Amino acid sequence: MVMYTSLSDIGLVRNENQDDLAVVEHEGALLAVVCDGIGGSNGGSVASKMVTDLLCKSFLSQSRFNDLSEIRYWFTSTISKINEKTFRASLENIKYHGMGTTLICVVLFKGKAVGFNIGDSRLYSIKDHKMTCLSHDQTYVYEMYLRDEITFEETATHPKRNILMNAVGIDSKIEFETIYINEPWDHFLLCSDGLHGYVADPLIEAVFANGSLVSRRDALLKHALEAGGYDNISMILIEGDKE
Q1: H-helix or E-strand spanning residue 62
Q2: Which of 58, 68, 128, 240 has its CA 20 to 30 A from that of 94?
Q3: Which residues of 217-228 are buried (b: 16+ CB within 10 A; e: fewer)?
Q4: HSE of 94 in the Cβ direction (CA atoms, 13 Å)?
Q5: What is the mean pLDDT of residues 82-95?
Q6: d(Cα 58, Cα 27) in Å, to the nearest integer?
Q7: What is the pLDDT of residues 142-172, one digit of tens each?
């Protein structure tokens, strides 16, 4: 049995919450998605809601999946159409020019899981209280790290760490990371950088040592607010002993 809880908070500094999230179940599969909008005015909130709504609508319209390859095919086809629609909307309305959104999602099906990543929101797995980040930030500083220009530790504090190299809706074409999850897990955490950008991984990991899903969720929000609450804070926590 899989249980889940979610939360999206404006934080303490921003005037608007440009994050969006959803969890939907259909034909024995579960989709969890977190989007963190970018763009001037209210473009970011428009983009994140548009992408979340369209992805969930497509998921709920599908026939029953047979395997993970069918899920990846569905996502590939769907995100291409969603990206085109978001990009076109940004061109047609000057208020939305330059808008886009990160996207992190996971699909659970028959005890298996596959994730998809665009941008710098993250997917973590937790097993026996040990946490692993499954996604890779698509940011300027992470590319610097891959080129051995900075250390991995420096990516967390580099002044250009928030520069995205990929997002939904910023170009006519879209690329994404596929995350096949083969290791056992007790929990998944999907979150925007309003959480992982201000709360260190060891502190996030410690929250999963004990407590209920809701108490863990609330503790993570508390840590993010105590760190300054500089950004919108969104998360989905999923629990299910998957061997």
Answers
A1: none
A2: 58
A3: bebbbebbbebe
A4: 0
A5: 94
A6: 13
A7: 788 778 888 877 777 777 777 889 999 999 9
